[in-house]
Amino acid sequence: MSGETQDHMISKNLYESEKQARLDAEKLLEAKNQEIQDMNNRLMAEAEAVRSALADTEAVRLRETVALKERLILSEALKALTGKSGADEAMQALLDVLKRDIGGRDCFFVQAEGDHTIVSVCADRTHHGHALPLPAALIDRPRRIAKLPSLIEGFSWPGDVEEPASTMIVPLELRDEKPGAIVLGCKLADRYSSGDFRTLEQVAKLAAQALLALRAARRNELLLALIEGKPLEHSEAVLDAPLEAVHNAFSRLTEMQGQVVGILDDLLGSPLHAIDNAIDKALARMGALTDTDRVYVFRLRPEGDFIDNTHEWCASGIEPARDILQNIPADMIDHWRAAFDAGDDILIPDVVAMPDDAPEKELLTEQGIRSLLAVPMVEHGIFRGFVGFDAVRALRTFLPGEVYLIRSIAKVIVSVLARRDAEEKLVRAHAETVSQRTRLEAVLSAMPDLIVELDREGRFVSWHSGAIVIPADTFAAFVNRKLEQRLEPELARSLRSKLEELDAGARMVSHTFEIQGDVPLVGWWQMTASAIGDQGYLLALRDISEDRQKAAEIERLSEIARRTTNLVVLTDAQRRIEWVNTAFERTTGYKLQDVVGRNPGTFLQSENTDQATVAKIRAALNKGEPVQVELLNKSRSGREYWLSIDIQPLHDESGAVERYLAVEVDITHQREQAESLRRAAAEAAAARANLEKAVEALRDAFVLYDADDRLVICNSRFRQIYALSAPAIVAGASFESIMRYGLEVGQFPDAIGHEAEWLADRLAQHSEPNREFEQLLPDGTWLRVFEKAMPDGGRVELRVDITELKLSEQRALADRAAAMEASLDGIAITDADGIFTYTNRAHFEMFGYATEADFVGQHWSKLYRPDEVEWLQANAMPAIERDGGWSGEILGLAKDGSPVDQDVSLTVNEDGGLLCITRDISARRFERAERERLLNELQLAQRREMIGQMAAGLAHDFNNLLAIISGGASLIIEATEDESPTAIGASRILAASDQAAGLVKRLLTLGARQSERVNLDLRRPVQEAAELVRSSLRAPARLSLTVPPDPVDALADPTDVLQLLLNLAINARDALGGAPGTIAIRLAPVERGSNPVSMTVGRIDPARRYACLTVEDDGPGMPPDVAERILTPYFSTKGDMGTGLGLAVVSSVIEDNGGAMRLTTKPGEGTRFEVYWPVDAVVTAKTSSASVKDATGRLDGQMILVVDDQPEVLDVITAYLEAAGAEVAATTDPFDILDALREEPDTWDLLVTDFDMPSMNGAQLAETAKEVAPGLPIVLVTALAGEAGRSGALFDGVLPKPIDRHSLVLQCELALMSAIGQQE
């Protein structure tokens, strides 16, 4: 075979090989094209499904919004305000309705607090009591504010959120309350319309009326609870706080009264030797009762020159001061002495607030005292010391009633201390007093007398029967009954006349009378009576029937002595016991045989027996005189008991004392009962006085009847209401007599002409246990009457003036009609025949009519074309009959014949007519069409971007392959002789590579869209994107949008911004996965120089200005391994539901516009994307200042670093550079380049880098290399040359793959020459 034939065969084989390679490449391109087409079809189908879902969601949302916000808000507000137990509950329900139906970030009821305002009630319960940066002056009138900044420094909006962009403030006037207002705030600008504002004003009027009514009802509840003594559930309500505070204060004072009575009893009942211990216990109880930290007693010495801390109690953790507060000079309290001498108290609520020149401030501050109360102890007008209360841990205030009770304790303390100081004197005085009282009670007990107490009206109150035993049922029959009700008429008149003599001034009267009949008190009685002040009368009744039967009585008394329950003792003249009765044995525990011959005093007296009384007995008996005393004795078992002893000497015929007879009555129970009765009488008197004051303080009419239906008490307001009947409204008057008098004087006009029937009905109603009704008086006053039976048979009644409430109801109805007339929706009402009976202005103007008269009396079919009427009859009317209502969209007919595109809601009224609410939706349809157009454009841009992403990835891989092929062919050509078969084959390969590179360039144009950047306000596309995302959200997911108030101007393509935000927001929505969460979109300008350095995508150019677009969600976040791959094309966390190109598109858009993005995420903490969008022109890549004509085509001696992640491409570039004479250090890892630069930054002359590398891209490498070696020139060799434009001025030269040796060497030489020129 010749050489020519061989060459021909080699050429043919090369040709066939190149042809097959080209065919394989075309098949690969065709397969990729088909894959791209399939992907495009799938994306278009998914986009269409998303668009359809968005459209359906938007329609549902609009219908729900219209139904909830525009049609039912007033009725919902009325529902929220009715049926509530208190004003705060009603206000809370109202705010919930306003936040839900009008909308906003939150809804408050605020009240003025000084120069600022506080949240009293809030839709968000956690914000109650929060101080707002809202001046009190801004809530004095209705306001609608576009942007409400923080106007008071130091205060913030609840939750530390930004100030609202839209705010409505409407005052809410409540009597006896601080100025208040309803405040609605929203983050969105222009959120509230004028219709929302008018609606809120109407709601505020209704709320004011309803809250006043609720407060009136609450006040009546409190008053009834106060009167009946019933417990009332404690309330923390803000609006009811004044009433609750009064009730709580009264309850606190009532509790303290009961405790103080016990303390006083303990002090008064304490033995003299235990007075100090009793005082210490009293101070401890008062400390706990008043919630103070230290309670103490200071006493002034008799000389008056020093005072001492004699008693002290300290709470746990409080240091005692008693030991150091001794021998205190009395002049240290001179500044208090004048007040103490006058009997006044010293009350210091806040020590810190005292003037600095106050003499006691320094001393009190040193002791840590914050509040102080000092009550003087005064005896007979002379200052003896004071009782003090210190509050150390917290400030403490004292009610006047509390101070009064403390003052009573101070009086008792000084009294018992004075008694102890003068013990012997008091003992003698006490002995004399006891002796006198004993004689009196002995006389009463020993004598067969009956002591009876009557009140001022002659009612039986109590009696002391003495030796007379009165059955319990007899006492029950007399108690609370008048003389005339229980005695014979003649006897009752006689006794009444005697009482009248006492009223006339007589000190004592007497009367003898006989009681006949079958009653326990039958017989002859002698009465002695005297008045006991204002409390009534005291009657001493002695049965004198025994004087008539003396002999028989003596015998009967002998038997009584044996059988009586009283103790009887018979002694001889030497006072030795001869005989005792059974009662003595039972009480003392000693039998007769145990005591015969013994003196009673030797075994019956105890250590507590009053020796003065014993001495009195001994002295009387020594004189042979009778004696009556009360004495404390002790039984055999050690039990102490009190006796009323009456000792009578028995004389013989000569008159000498022969024996002594002692009759002893056990009065232990009577003494205890008498003391209890005394305390009870005092408490009853005080309670009645308090009741009278409380009743008189009522604004409403109050009246109380007893069990006999007689008036007990009423206030002046009751007499004012029934002014004509006032003469008959007196204590003791019966209800029937008051009613009869009122009928006589015309008090009840509705009874005229049928007085008897009216009175019978009224008395029957009055007997009902509980009754509530309304009553209209002749002067037009409306009353609500409450009548309630009490457990004791009496009745309590309240008359509440509800005239204003009645007027408010009328005004509320008028306001409701005005609200319908002011509604922006058309409202019309028809009768059962479909004839219009009412239309508001919005309704008839919607159809082009001038007045309501054009509608009233006309059939509704007048407003529709015949075909629409027929459709409504066939479809809407059956639905109305079946479901009670129908809603939908339909075309109406205006007066001029033009169509009216409307949304109609029809509801059946109770009378069979229809309520029609309609709205013109022409503008809504236009807005919907515009939104659909915007969605279509966006979807087209997304499809193009996705196709471009796939084409770019394919082109990158192809260019790398072509770079290897063309580089190898070039090296073959250079290594072989010209026109050699190898050189010719290599040239053909090189030519084919150039053609393939052209195909790749055309491939990059697939789906490419040229960005049309214009000057625009970034807020507009951001708001459009937020609306599109919001329409696709479903509860419980929420979206918030924050944009600055001022324009953010930038050079950008609006579709790019929209595409970027939608991809990020939809990813955030999908991350929530249907769980509750919030997606936040924010736009904010960034100050120059404040941009962060570390970026996930792109880089920040310090010389440029940026705006920050943030998309953030509070979903599950991403683990680090997912976050690292999330921007990789075709990587998706959604499985088959995702394409994996959304965030790749975002990265492409950002880099195309020279921006940057930072990703922040962590599992469980949500995800945040921060996009830094440049707002000025793009900085173009640097151009070499060196001239091509100066190039030599050699790189001799140059130290060059080369990096490319494709080893084959790296080998080609290295061979090119080394062939030009350069010293090359090549690597596939960018971090090796950085390590070499850090070790020897001045050794290297040039860096040649690829762009798209796994661990670090070329821009990031160039940026870091510039930090290490600022003057190092860098040349970019990339399969996608467009990357250079995204990286600004980082590179000194850019070469697209595939490359040829000449271009590479030339570009590197020019970069080196330019760097040398810049250094010179």
How would you sum up this structure in a few lines?
With 1320 residues, the protein is an alpha+beta fold. Helices cover 45% and strands 22% of the residues.
Per-chain topology:
Elements: H1 3-71, H2 73-81, H3 87-101, E1 106-113, E2 116-122, E3 131-132, E4 143-145, E5 166-171, E6 180-186, H4 194-228, H5 241-269, H6 275-290, E7 294-300, E8 306-314, E9 328-329, H7 334-341, E10 346-348, H8 361-366, E11 371-379, E12 382-391, H9 400-421, H10 423-446, E13 449-454, E14 460-464, H11 472-478, H12 483-486, H13 489-503, E15 509-515, E16 523-531, E17 537-543, H14 545-548, H15 550-563, E18 567-572, E19 577-580, H16 582-588, H17 592-595, H18 601-604, H19 611-622, E20 627-634, E21 640-651, E22 657-666, H20 668-697, E23 701-705, E24 711-714, H21 716-721, H22 735-745, H23 755-766, E25 770-776, E26 782-789, E27 795-801, H24 803-822, E28 826-830, E29 836-839, H25 841-846, H26 866-883, E30 885-893, E31 899-908, E32 914-920, H27 922-975, H28 981-1004, E33 1014-1017, H29 1019-1032, E34 1037-1042, E35 1049-1052, H30 1054-1072, E36 1077-1086, E37 1097-1098, E38 1106-1113, H31 1120-1125, H32 1142-1152, E39 1156-1161, E40 1167-1174, E41 1199-1203, H33 1207-1219, E42 1223-1227, H34 1230-1239, E43 1246-1249, H35 1258-1268, E44 1274-1278, H36 1283-1286, ...
Parallel strand pairs: 34-36, 41-42, 41-43, 43-44, 44-45
Antiparallel strand pairs: 1-2, 1-6, 2-3, 4-5, 5-6, 7-8, 7-12, 8-9, 10-11, 11-12, 13-14, 13-17, 15-16, 16-17, 18-19, 18-22, 20-21, 21-22, 23-24, 23-27, 25-26, 26-27, 28-29, 28-32, 30-31, 31-32, 33-35, 36-38, 37-39, 38-40, 39-40
Helix pairs in contact: 1-27, 1-28, 2-3, 2-4, 3-4, 4-24, 5-6, 5-9, 6-9, 27-28, 27-30, 27-32, 27-33, 29-30, 30-32, 34-35
